[in-house]
Amino acid sequence: MTATVSSITRAGTFEPFDLQIPRSEIYGHSTVNIYGFQSAVTTTQIPLWENATAYTFPSSAVVMTLASSSASDTAVTITINGLDSGYNQISEVVALNGTTGVNTTKSYLRINSLITTSGNAVGNVTAKNGGTTYAQINAGFGRSLMSIYTVPNGFDFYLARVDANSSFNGNNLNYLFYQNSSVNSAGVSIVTTKAPFTAGYSVRRVMPRKYSGKTDLQFLFNTSASTAAVNVGIEGYLIQSDVTTNVTP
């Protein structure tokens, strides 16, 4: 008898919903994991990404130029995941040429992540247009860490978990604020969460919060005083809402 790799029980057919989704067992469903980190968060509210600054989205779909800060990064490929002018999902693999910029073949309205496909860059890798950085991989990390995400057209994102940690020790003099901010396709800006915390912040939603397609999400942080290192892990479900859009048979 040939053994079959399966995570369902031998006596039945039960498998947890949260395991079926990453195994691509449920049509139109996938998981989204968003990670952010910044070692120098101050009293100015920012998303957690590679630069301790506010983030600016492109105003239109543009070609991105990828380059490393090290001339030796010539055997590294990067996958860029983003959205086109219609907020539809697009991606491509770009081979770095050291400090010489390499243009993408596609135009990006949004970048949701940069992930190393092969090789290990020794420099910082940036995706820029017109001198503005839209995504970055710091040396040694292998992927972008940005608490920024845009929901693709034809899908809904259901936010299920947020976990943040800081370098603060929990005294009452230094603490942080966490803010969940979204801008929908009509340009309406909404703050759904504003919460103070010290060493850590954790939320598990019994009923995940829904964000519709074309919504920009930023998970923002700032300190009450001083400077802190902060990381965040965000998890949710991306579920297809429009059967005529982004369908993969």
Keywords:
249 residues; globular; 1 helix; Jelly Rolls; single chain; mainly beta
Beta-strand content estimate: over 45%
**Architecture per CATH nomenclature, i.e. the level-2 architecture of the largest domain:** Sandwich
The helix-and-strand class reads mainly beta
Helix-residue proportion: under 10%
Describe it.
The chain has 249 residues and is mostly beta strands. The protein folds into two domains: 27-54 and 149-240, Sandwich (Jelly Rolls); 62-144, no CATH class. Helix content is 2%, strand content 51%. It is built from one helix and 16 strands. The chain has one helix spanning 17-20; strands at 29-41, 46-47, 62-68, 77-83, 89-95, 102-108, 110-118, 125-129, 132-137, 148-150, 155-166, 176-183, 189-197, 200-211, 216-223, 228-240. Strands 2, 10, 12, 13 and 15 form a five-stranded antiparallel β-sheet that branches. The chain has a four-stranded antiparallel β-sheet with strand order 1-16-11-14, with no helix packed on it. The radius of gyration is 19 Å and the shape is globular. 32% of the residues are buried. The mean pLDDT is 92.
